[in-house]
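Show me any protein, keeping tokens residue-aligned.
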Amino acid sequence: MREFYYDDIDVGEVHELGSFTAERKEQLEFAEQWHPELLPRDEEVSMDTLQNDIIVNGLYIASSCMRLLVDRFLNDTASLGSFGLDEIRWPNPVKPGDTVNVKCLITEKTASKSHDDRGYIEIEVLGTNEDDDEVVFWRGTNIFSRK
């Protein structure tokens, strides 16, 4: 496995991370353990929302995207972690059975002024459904080792 360092990653790169299908059973198990609010678990409650339909939990969607980001990008880099997310949103609902296509965009790079062994890369993660509607978006800054 080759490690990509801060120096190897360029602004404007797009990394296609693959896709996942939002399975109802898996989403219910996730919600039961990690997000026990009734909305993502109870069909009757879900039908009484603005969507008037069963929708998939946003944290499940974000976690599934994170899995792809780690497996298909971050694991191949000299990542030192992240400062966290600056923004996350779910502009359109995901319904059980929908497939979400995920990509990572490199939007900005800044060499550290206080640590010359690292740099900061701003990434955006975007997930779209089969109709190319945006269903999840986040922006965050990751820390990478320099060569």
User: Anything to note?
Assistant: The CA atoms of residues 66 and 99 lie 15 Å apart. Strands lie at 14-21, 79-89, 99-111, 118-128, 134-145. The mean pLDDT is 89.
